Amino acid sequence: MGITAIVMAGGKGSRMGLPVEKPMLPFFGKPLIDYAIVAISQAKNITDFYIVTSNNTPNTEQHCKNMNWKTIHTDAKGYHDDLKQAVRSTKLTGPILTMPSDVPAVTGAFLDKVVCEFEQCGKDFLAVFVPIKKRLDLGLSISSTDEYNGTWYAVSGINIINGAMIQKDGKIETSALITEETDVLLNINTQKDVEIAQKIFYNNTP
Fold this sequence. Notes:
This protein is α/β, with parallel strands linked by helices.
């Protein structure tokens, strides 16, 4: 299956407490968002991608344009509203992989795994969750949580949704991939997360 990816990079990133935009935060000298695009480019099941920007992230938008990456400028009304706006503007109706710009350890192989899970689940929405305890044990922050089958998990930000369902109201039938893999475990929300992630990333890199 060849699907389109949308990278959400238009938020304020206020939890970082930094003057630099979160997608442009240096991670081993390279902007966080670059790691996401490398992973997307290496994924065999992703054939196209867009980056969602807003007035919150003008430097990110300029960086993307300099790299000749396709951007969608949204109104910065929040994650879900911006995603809906992006899907409307691109007229995407098939499966869409959405992901944040702050998962520097993510790989193309992992994204392909998510696509395969979506194909097999038979639902309109697949969320990737991480056990809360695993992040806490590593000293990483918990910024967003969600419940699945009675258990609360940390949200990774990587999902696949049927594009035709995004504009509709009501609950979407959901499946989940629950994993402790480093690819999504190292979701960056604070400066402390950066320091911990760089240490783990360095130790796991051959």
